């Protein structure tokens, strides 16, 4: 079923919206022809790829994972309690937009303090109204903070400052309702990427969007998870990619291209020597130096040959 307005409900650093066309033309033929039963995304993040692919292709079931418990909570609330979430966000938006800049700033930091002060591990047996408010606070902070980021400190506290937007859209009920419908065939999991193994077989398509390997020290972005994702994690992911390949699953992975900074850096060629590695152009969106924002290459790695047949639907 096609859901017209389905798209990410959060702004997300490293979101793949600008590369959707590149991914779509490289999808396996079996996905394009509706012959793949299961879609798995072990690092869902903002969900740009998930919302596109699940909206345009037929899967019996989808499984999305993330280690960010706040993100997992937000997806779960959007799927299960979207009308209650919309009601809370409507009240929040109305109250916020009536304020002047100074009062908005005070409002923002009050919500941020409440959000950080009420942080607790997700326990699904306690899931209910308190989590709806928490998901609403996350969406509010995401829509009104500086650059629309989600960033946490070493203690896991949200630490992005106030953003001075004149008329931010805090509530988009059409998108939230569409996303809720699309999530009906989807299991939402809190966990490490390797936890997805139990759902992967030869009739599965898996898209990996791990935290990107920094191109240099200045491009390192503080993670949306307090634990980070370093080179050893990239190596562990490559080993997992090989394991799923041996099962016959069709796999796609995206990452940064170290050769943007160092032509002699063969990190990913060494990790994925037997797979197809393609470079596509993307725009660097996050950099403290505006002059270093611009066109760069990113990598798309697949374990199958891409035929580029059919239209790009995303």
TrEMBL record:
Catalytic reaction(s) noted: a 2'-deoxyadenosine in DNA + S-adenosyl-L-methionine = an N(6)-methyl-2'-deoxyadenosine in DNA + S-adenosyl-L-homocysteine + H(+)
A Pfam family annotated for this UniProt entry: MethyltransfD12
EC number of this enzyme: 2.1.1.72
GO molecular function annotations of the record: methyltransferase activity
GO biological process: methylation
InterPro entries: Ade_MeTrfase_dom_2, DNA_methylase_N6_adenine_CS, M_m6A_EcoRV, MeTrfase_D12, SAM-dependent_MTases_sf
Family matches, as SUPFAM superfamilies: S-adenosyl-L-methionine-dependent methyltransferases (SSF53335)
Keyword terms: Methyltransferase, S-adenosyl-L-methionine, Transferase
Transmembrane segments: none
Similarity field: Belongs to the N(4)/N(6)-methyltransferase family.
Protein name as annotated: site-specific DNA-methyltransferase (adenine-specific)
Lineage of the species this protein comes from: Archaea, Methanobacteriati, Methanobacteriota, Stenosarchaea group, Methanomicrobia
